[in-house]
Amino acid sequence: MLAEPRSGLLVAWGNALLAGRVPPDDAVSEIVGTDEPHRVTGVPGESGPVGLSLGLGRLRALGVRGLRLALPVAGDPLALPGPPTFNDLALVAGEAAITVGAPGTAFGLVPEVTRHGTDADAAVRVAWTMFEVVDRPAPGPFLAEAERELAEAMRDTIDELTRLDVAGGGPAGQRALAGLYRKDSDTRIAPGHPGRAGRVLDQARRIHAVLAVATREDGAAVSAAEISARLTALAPLERACRRAMVAAYGAALEPDRA
After folding, report:
1. For residues 189 and 248, what is the distance between their CA atoms, to the nearest angstrom?
2. CA 110/CA 91 separation, integer angstroms
3. Is the pLDDT of residue 218 over 70?
4. I need a surface site. Which of 106, 136, 157, 171 has the fewest CB within 10 A?
5. The dihedral of CA 246, 251, 254, 258: what is its sign?
6. What number of other Cβ atoms are within 10 A of residue 82's Cβ?
7. Three-state secondary-structure class, residue 106
8. pLDDT at position 130, please?
9. In whole angstroms, what is the distance from residue 187 CA to residue 251 CA?
10. Averaged pLDDT for residues 84-107
11. Which CA distances in Å does 101 have to 104, 143, 181, 249?
């Protein structure tokens, strides 16, 4: 799972654009960030790749009223609708955005992120592929539910994180653990999202940073079986993190905010 999935940014700022809360140029700027300009292949009516602004505009013209996020992993597709070709690419990417509201038709977008250039002057290229997907509503997870699940999973896993001695992983582990107890939020959430969404997203990212330290193969686990045991023990917390991110990025579409 990415700390800042491109599909999450597409969902959050795409929803703000589709709701008329931000102009297209502002939404695209927030989604792209420091990347090279994003390109989209498979846009209905276009024979080749187009810019992200045109792609989002075409979705709006088709009746799309919003986007939702998917953060699938093997064994837990987490809101992937099909067909298999789309699902397979989304699983490889670990993320996808899926449209909501177009009558009779839904679309999925999967990013391919590549980095090129030198370490000192690296650039990021993002190419989206758009697919027609199964029009199958996937309500939730909703923000309050996902926040509660994340807190419960964290409580249930504290003993395991202590046993794994995450802080013993060096400075990275110590910073990750210290981050769990921060109360501030440094996430700029898109217009239309409650402030709570930013806090949930921050907490999910901080927990994910701890999980990255706890599950790496750094010599602390002496066998493949012990590494597998770590992953199994921490799987519920990892899933709760993904569900929290899905809920936070898509919070603007919750029924009481529509």
Report:
1. 9
2. 9
3. no
4. 171
5. negative
6. 13
7. strand
8. 97
9. 14
10. 91
11. 9, 20, 39, 17
Q: Is 82 helix (H, G, I), strand (E, B) or coil?
A: coil
The number of angstroms, rounded, from the C-alpha of 146 to the middle of its chain's C-alpha atoms is 14
With CA atoms as reference, report the closest residue to 75 among 231, 256, 252.
231
Residue-wise pLDDT for 123-176, tens only, equals 999 999 999 998 776 667 899 999 999 999 888 877 776 666 655 555 655 555
- Tokens matching residue 22: 């931000």
- Between CA 88 and CA 163 the distance in angstroms is 35
pTM of this prediction?
0.87
Token pair in block for residue 252:
């603007």
DSSP per residue, 30-59: HHHTTSPPPEEE--TT-SS-EEHHHHHHHH
43 with 55: CB under 8 angstroms? yes
- Let me know how long the chain is: 258
pLDDT of residue 164: 64
Residue tagged 């700390």 (tokens)? 3
State mean pLDDT over 187-211: 86
Look over the chain and give the mean of its residue pLDDT values, rounded to a whole number: 84
Q: Per the structure block, which two tokens stand in for 66?
A: 């919003």
Q: What percent of the chain has pLDDT over 90?
A: 53
